[in-house]
Amino acid sequence: MELIIRHNVWRIERNLLDGNGNGEAVIIMDLGYNDDDERRPVTSLSSMRAWINGLMAYLRALTGIADPHYPETYSRIIFTRAPGPFWAVWKVAQLLVNENTRKKVMILTAADPKPKLLEVLPLECIPDYFGGLASVAGVPKGGVV
Fold this sequence. Notes:
Helices cover 43% and strands 11% of the residues. The chain is an alpha/beta fold. The protein has a single domain, classed as CATH 3.40.525.10. It has a three-stranded parallel β-sheet. Helix 2 (45-69) links the parallel strand 1 and strand 2. Helix 1 runs parallel beside helix 2 (45-69). The chain is globular.
């Protein structure tokens, strides 16, 4: 989890250095859940509980850094490939973030989020693993340069 948090903080810093610190940046947080994938992280009720606990710990840690130190950095925060029960997690997690941040959150549960992403982003800003043109090949592991 530390690597994921470091990566997201690195992305925030990159956006600020690239001149996108005025609320125009979009972050896509791929939760990696796909009902059709046999490697999906949630296969039973007990694994769902473990997944939710891990996700809640991650969100608490990230918002503990992002809210006080990087306010209003993003115009949209998109969770992709979220399992249906993520909505229950979000009901609790949204209590941990400020109202402006809550308004920016978009949750996509479909295995193929590209059509919904195209409603808010141009094709060149959608990651290549979703069929967009933005390459993520240069992002270092854990976001550490």
